[in-house]
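Quick start: what a row looks like.
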Amino acid sequence: MRFQRTFALATALLVSGGLAGCSLGPVNLGDFIGTPSVEEAHEARRAELAPVVADSSLKQAGTLTVGIPTDQTAPLAVTMSGGAQSGIDIDVAHALADELGLSSVTFVAVDDAESALAETCDVVMGVEPDEAGSATVVGGYVQSATGLFTREDVTAPIDASALSGATVALQEGSVSAVAVDEYELSVVRTPVTNLNEAFDALEEGSVQYVVCDAYAGAYLAAAYSDVSFAGIFDEPALVGIAVSGNELQTAVQTALEAVESGGVADIARARWVGDLPTLSSESRITGLVERAAPSAEADAETPAE
């Protein structure tokens, strides 16, 4: 898991974009792990790197310019009070640069992946395929899904029957709350304003479950005792790296495959989300029954306002 012994985060963590659905309140990074980052682990190696991409394919010669969506959330991107960034995106980007033979990495904030790739960036982290426009998204180093967490000792995924009558903390109106609404579940909902409040309620025993983005929940769960991942509600979406240009696209694809097969991507994920498994169809809560859509006949019988 991930605990950094010193360094308090003075500002709120970013609200979710690629991993949308839940907002985080202020977080003290003293609650999280201090294992070396991928950047630190590879620092000694950089002096020996040999570029595998031509400078003509890069926005800056010898540098990988990496876009981080402005609406990205922890644990993909965490902005410290001094402006420095950390997170899975940052760790994977540094590892990617190593594989590309580039000793320098620059991060820029971006609002739109397609325009950023045309103007300012070589790659944009944390992008789902339907968010990339004409750019190509390679890999899937993390996944986006609505997760369920509990203090009970469970093995994920649990069966939906365990939720019958259970108290569940969630943010009403969030993507996660909408995901829950898609199923026939008789839960007692406890509205919260952010995930800190939700996990505090779970720790205190006033709720039995928390529903939120799976990665954001796993990130925060490390600050609380005995919190278990119980499964996901929806089919996970792959989140990868947006890139344009044939030469760079091929190079990034190869480099990311090396990062993933070599275990570096797993190290980066574990640093921020602990033992959260790679999310797949097998991670879905079993026994979920989709809520039937209102019939046309029922809609016709509803009186107009």
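That is the whole record. The first strand starts at residue 63 and ends at 69. Confidence is low (pLDDT under 50) at residues 1-18.
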